[in-house]
From TrEMBL:
InterPro entries: FAD-dep_OxRdtase, FAD-dependent_OxRdtase_HpnW, FAD/NAD-bd_sf. Keywords: Flavoprotein, Oxidoreductase. GO terms for molecular function: oxidoreductase activity. The keyword Thylakoid does not apply. Residues 7-368 form the FAD dependent oxidoreductase domain. This is TIGR03364 family FAD-dependent oxidoreductase. The keyword Signal does not apply. Its cofactor is FAD. Pfam families: DAO (PF01266). Gene3D superfamilies: D-Amino Acid Oxidase, subunit A, domain 2, FAD/NAD(P)-binding domain. It comes from Flammeovirga aprica JL-4. One of its GO terms (cellular component) is cytoplasm. Belongs to the DadA oxidoreductase family. PANTHER family: D-AMINO ACID DEHYDROGENASE, SARCOSINE DEHYDROGENASE-RELATED.
Length: 386
């Protein structure tokens, strides 16, 4: 019979919770993960599956992301997670977008970003068919990783089970106090409890979450079935809208000019918070997204956004004949002005949430930081680029 006593109990089986479980079990701790739904259903399985170092500003974001990259590479091998590890390609569809890419490349030469400017001819190695004749400049960033959002979380769960982590699904947590967690099915005790419940902001300690200056954000995405697989991009693609959505590009002198141009030329892109990105799955489908709507309590799929994403995509790459196979929404919690929030709501009961769209990029590093602190180990070891 299993003991109901653990070193760490994690509430939430998204990437944040699983990352903390992984960091803890690596230290030899006894860990349980409790998830209220029958399987992960939140933002961790409703995204591109991109690890996105290039979107992180220098500072804590960046340091956590660097360490997370090392852990992703470990997990890709050990948990046999499908991945593309060759980076991502930014496309410039205007002179100002090209200016931003060139400025970023120049300004970050002595930092851990790894970028190369590409001509249109050189981009042909990665994108079989560009639609726009005005795309003459690209930026290849080799630090990015893509996993399958529909597979990676489940593969990580199986790995954690193999390592001895107990994972309980379909068990809402009803009550948490220092040292005790009561679910719909059992009572567990733990030295520490970590709650990382994503967009579920009302079930546990809602008043504390409300105090943290957070907002809900809904994204809208779709999957495309492309008839001619030879037209598929060989790397994740980011566009001019990605430049104005990534804080790391704020160092570029031309970024404000780009924001103004997009606002004037394509106001709907701003209205719906479009960050046009394209990825491909292991089954050779295309993932297209995404929009960003902030603050609403309930979101629904908006066909106007779908049509806008498709129109913008067609202006960038030529995929030939395709059909929209699936559309969906995902919702995450974002902390204003900070990469995340961490609050100890009771003795040894911690909330970690509000990572915004950076869960796949910083969670592993953040988890190691917390576990090391709780065990008195100190700060993270300095990450090195692999």
């Amino acid at each position: 019979m299993k003991s109901n006593t653990y070193d760490l109990i994690v509430g939430g089986a998204g990437i944040v919770g699983l990352s903390h479980a992984l960091a803890a079990v690596k230290k030899g701790l006894k860990v349980a993960v409790i998830e209220r739904t029958p399987k992960p259903m939140g933002a961790s399985v409703r995204n591109f599956g991109f690890y996105w170092l290039i979107g992180q500003q220098n500072g804590e974001h960046f340091d956590l992301a660097l360490r997370s990259r090392e852990v992703w590479l470990e997990m890709i091998q050990e948990a046999k997670i499908w991945a593309r590890k060759r980076g991502a390609l930014f496309l410039a569809n205007s002179k100002t977008e090209a200016d931003v890419l060139e400025e970023f490349h120049t300004l970050t030469q002595h930092e851990a970003y790894e970028t190369t400017l590409l001509s249109r001819e050189q981009m042909g190695k990665y994108i079989p068919s560009l639609s726009s004749s005005s795309i003459e400049t690209g930026l290849l960033s080799t630090t990015e990783i893509q996993v399958s959002p529909f597979q990676a979380i489940f593969q990580l769960i199986e790995y954690l089970k193999f390592k001895g982590v107990d994972i309980f699904f379909s068990e809402p947590i009803l009550h948490v106090t220092s040292g005790e967690v009561i679910t719909s099915a059992r009572t567990l005790t733990a030295n520490k409890v970590l709650l990382s419940t994503g967009s579920d902001i009302y079930s546990l300690f809602p008043d504390e979450i409300k105090k943290q200056n957070t907002t809900l954000c809904s994204l809208q995405m779709m999957k495309l079935k492309v008839h001619d697989k030879s037209k598929l991009p060989k790397l994740p693609i980011a566009t001019g809208t990605s430049l104005i959505h990534s804080p790391s590009f704020n160092i570029c002198p031309s970024i404000d000019k780009l924001r103004e141009q997009i606002s004037v030329k394509s106001p709907l892109l701003n209205e719906w918070g479009i960050n046009l990105m394209i990825g491909t799955t292991p089954s050779k489908d295309v993932i297209l997204g995404d929009s960003h709507e902030y603050g609403a309590e309930k979101f629904k799929n908006n066909n106007e956004i779908n049509e806008l994403l498709l129109t913008e995509m067609k202006g960038i790459v030529e995929l030939g004949e395709f059909k929209v196979h699936e559309t969906w929404n995902g919702t995450y919690l974002k902390t204003e002005g900070k990469p995340y929030f961490h609050s100890e709501v009771e003795e040894n009961v911690h909330l970690v949430n509000g990572l915004g769209g950076n869960g796949m990029t910083i969670s592993f590093g953040l988890a190691e930081k917390h576990i090391n602190e709780w065990m008195g180990v100190g700060e993270l070891p300095k990450a090195e680029m692999i």
